[in-house]
Amino acid sequence: MLEGVIRAGPSEWEIPVGFVPGMRVPGRFFLSDALAALLEPGAVQQLANVATLPGIIRCSLGMPDIHWGYGFPIGGVAAFSLDEGIISPGGVGFDINCGVRLFTTPLVQADIKKPREFIESLYKAVPTGVGAKSSLKVSPAALTAMMEKGARWAVEAGYGVERDLARCEENGCMKQADIHAVSAKARARGIPQGGTLGSGNHFLEIQVVSEIFDESAAKAFGLAEGQICCMIHCGSRGLGHQVCTDHLKTLETATKKYHITLPDRQLACAPLQSPEGKAYFGAMAASANYAWANRQLIMHAARLQFERMFGIGYESMPLVYDVTHNVAKIEEHIVDGHRVTVCVHRKGATRSFGPGSHDLPGDLTAIGQPVIIPGSMGTSSFVLKGTATAMERTFGSTCHGSGRVMSRSQAKKRMSGKEVADHLLMQGIIVRAPNEAAIADEAPEVYKPSSEVVQVVHDAGLSALVARMSPLGVIKG
Amino acid sequence: MSYEELPHTADVKIRACAPTSDALFGEAASALMQVMYGGDRRGGTTRSIDLDAPDQESLLCDFLSEVLYMSEVDGLVFQQADVRIEGMHLHAVLDGEPFDPERHNQGTEVKGISYSGLSIRKDAKGYMLDILFDV
Question: What is the ipTM of this complex?
Answer without folding.
Answer: 0.93
